[in-house]
Amino acid sequence: MLIDPREQRLSAAAARGWSCYPPRAMFDQRRIAATGQKARRGDLPAASGEMPRQSIGGGQPCDGCGETIHPVERFFYVSIRGRELRFHDVCYGAWKGAWRAFQRG
Ligand SMILES: [Zn+2]
Question: What is the dihedral of CA 21, 24, 29, 33, to 10 degrees?
């Protein structure tokens, strides 16, 4: 089985117990909540059928939760009406999920 080198870096960081990288699940819950709130406030454009592209973070802020996308993290970016949005992978999911919930009413 091939192991993604980025995943390897993440787990190596976790194994060393880096204080700047608390367990991923803690990050994820906070980020999902922040992105969902922002979407519900109307501070994010509506998600539609755009195709996200993926890259590795370079210290930019996430448009969902506002936290930094660290160089060991994957992120998604989409272009909506000329605006480029970057999201952590979990924030991208939260943004899409928030809009699906709106559409269901
Ligand atoms: Zn985020």
Answer: 60
